[in-house]
């Protein structure tokens, strides 16, 4: 199996459901519905991995009445197709059990025999094709998941394949051959199928485990930050779900953030407000706080505006009637606005929305003879509401201005009218700062975990201090290799 697919599958398998305690700031729960989907994908991939699989040659000899000692070789034994009638996935404290029952498989093979006996001095031989139909096949496996130093370790606890019935159809050949095949080879063919499928299961799980081990413990988001996706605690398996948790905090690139302790005993609900969704991702408000801190500390929360749709605003001439002192000292000079967030924005998840409080210093600069001269600084405290949305596989936000308050920090051009500042700031906030922040927020950051999958019909729930994304997921077409009832003829 392609590692990336396996990886995604696994992740799906890992996702968990009722109230449970986790110690990460991002937690994922895979519901029964999600587990069912993961199981279907696993079976699909499993079938794709055995179709066209060639089993080892089988050789046998037997004494055939009136014919003599026949040596028969079955070769090119190939699994042509597998059909699964019913399957199930169950989770319990001891692991995840996937079972397939009543599966059928078609095989093709070649036979050849040679007979030598004193009765027939000239050896006779013949060859031809045959097909085999296997029915009532049962396949099962049990895996367990543990946290191993921040990675997930997948262990195969038990697995097997059992062939119920087998029928052979011979193209040509003598009737004694048919009887011989049935008598002497049925068991061999059945165990060859059982062994081959069991081996594929073992291989598949080893590959899945390798893919899990190779998941990076941190996802680089941009030049400034990375998301710590180390697993914390062991997956919690209940009879209806699997829950996993990752650290989930933003860290500054190449620099370990002072590890934030997880509040003890914080319970996460696995309910999706009655919606039957495959997964639920819960994100603690500390994730947003850590993002705010990282970007603030990295000095990323400041920018300069020297271009506006209405460029005239950025010239002192435009202000000569409103702020005459400014025009008097710097006639016809260009201006720029330096915006700098002066403390890490405070982010809070409530029961209805995400609230953000941002304090910005807005400094007005005048450009005179190539020199940047700060002339006034206004501090603005902005309260905004953030609506969270899922855009593709990213979690994004849209800020809406709630209210703001301003005060003049300092001025080199004398007193400014507060009314004037209020209305000026209102327009700067609405036309410049919020659109700019929304442009940044609109891209959001990628939700960890699901590679190759896309969210479908995601709902956002606010449950202080968590935001939950309840969603179905779909494996993208590119990742679909082979269909469920692959049959190659
Ligand atoms: C498939 O399963 C159903 C019940 O689960 C059973 O009635 C049916 O006979 C099975 N079909 C085959 C081909 O095994
Ligand atoms: C096996 O082949 C037979 C006839 O060729 C077909 O009817 C049956 O559906 C096939 N079964 C599978 C599992 O592909
Ligand atoms: C047996 O099958 C092979 C392909 O699988 C084919 O080339 C060959 O002609 C067949 N032989 C007979 C005797 O049908
Ligand atoms: C799962 O376990 C809970 C109690 O732990 C029980 O009430 C519930 O019926 C079980 N559900 C299933 C489907 O077994
Ligand atoms: C990432 O999270 C793990 C688990 O909480 C923690 O042990 C590790 O120190 C964190 N790494 C960084 C770089 O903060
Ligand atoms: C906005 O209004 C809320 C209550 O309506 C108040 O708590 C908050 O301090 C105000 N924010 C600002 C920046 O004035």
From TrEMBL:
It comes from Flemingia macrophylla. SUPFAM superfamilies: Bactericidal permeability-increasing protein, BPI. The keyword NAD does not apply. InterPro entries: Bactericidal_perm-incr_a/b_dom, BPI/LBP, BPI/LBP_pln, Lipid-bd_serum_glycop_C, Lipid-bd_serum_glycop_N. This is BPI/LBP family protein. It holds the Pfam family LBP_BPI_CETP. Residues 273-478 form the Lipid-binding serum glycoprotein C-terminal domain. Residues 1-19 form the signal peptide.
């Amino acid at each position: 199996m392609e590692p990336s697919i396996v990886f995604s599958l696994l992740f799906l398998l890992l996702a968990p459901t009722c109230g449970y305690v986790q110690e990460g700031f991002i937690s994922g729960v895979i519901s029964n519905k999600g587990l069912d989907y993961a199981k279907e994908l696993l079976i699909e991939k499993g079938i794709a991995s055995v179709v066209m699989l060639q089993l080892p040659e089988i050789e046998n000899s037997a004494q055939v009445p009136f014919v003599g000692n026949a040596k028969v070789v079955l070769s090119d034994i190939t699994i042509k197709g597998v059909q699964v009638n019913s399957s199930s996935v169950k989770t319990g404290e001891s692991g995840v059990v996937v079972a397939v029952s009543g599966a059928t498989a078609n095989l093709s093979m070649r036979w050849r025999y040679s007979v030598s006996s004193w009765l027939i001095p000239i050896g006779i031989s013949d060859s031809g094709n045959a097909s085999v139909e296997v029915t009532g096949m049962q396949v099962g496996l049990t895996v367990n998941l543990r946290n191993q130093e921040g990675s997930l370790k997948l262990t195969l606890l038990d697995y097997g394949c059992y062939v119920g019935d087998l029928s052979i159809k011979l193209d040509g050949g003598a009737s004694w051959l048919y009887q011989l095949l049935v008598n002497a080879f049925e068991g061999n063919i059945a165990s060859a199928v059982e062994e081959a499928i069991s081996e594929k299961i073992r291989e598949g799980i080893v590959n899945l485990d390798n893919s899990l081990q190779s998941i990076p413990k941190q996802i680089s988001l941009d030049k400034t930050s990375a998301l710590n996706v180390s697993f914390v605690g062991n997956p919690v398996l209940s009879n209806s779900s699997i829950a996993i948790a990752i650290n989930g905090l933003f860290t500054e690139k190449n620099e370990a953030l002072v590890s934030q302790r997880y509040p003890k005993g914080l319970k996460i609900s696995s309910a999706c407000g009655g919606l039957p969704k495959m997964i639920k991702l819960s994100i603690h408000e500390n994730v947003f706080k850590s993002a705010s801190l990282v970007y603030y500390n990295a000095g990323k929360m400041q920018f300069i505006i020297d271009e506006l749709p209405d460029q005239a605003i950025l010239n002192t001439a435009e202000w000569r009637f409103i702020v005459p002192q400014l025009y008097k000292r710097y006639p016809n000079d260009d201006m720029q606005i330096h915006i700098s967030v002066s403390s890490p924005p405070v982010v809070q998840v409530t029961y209805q929305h995400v609230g953000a409080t941002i304090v910005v210093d807005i400094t007005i600069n005048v450009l005179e003879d190539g020199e940047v001269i700060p002339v006034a600084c206004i501090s603005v405290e902005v309260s905004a509401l953030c609506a969270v949305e899922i855009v593709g596989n990213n979690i994004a936000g849209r800020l809406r201005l709630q209210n703001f308050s301003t005060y003049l920090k300092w001025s080199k051009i004398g007193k400014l009218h507060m009314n004037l500042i209020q209305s000026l700031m209102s327009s700067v906030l609405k036309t410049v700062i919020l659109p700019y922040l929304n442009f940044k927020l609109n891209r959001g950051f990628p939700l960890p975990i699901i590679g190759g999958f896309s969210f479908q019909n995601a709902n956002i729930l606010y449950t202080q201090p968590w935001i939950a994304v309840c969603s179905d997921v779909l494996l993208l077409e590119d990742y679909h290799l082979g269909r469920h009832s692959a049959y190659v003829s």
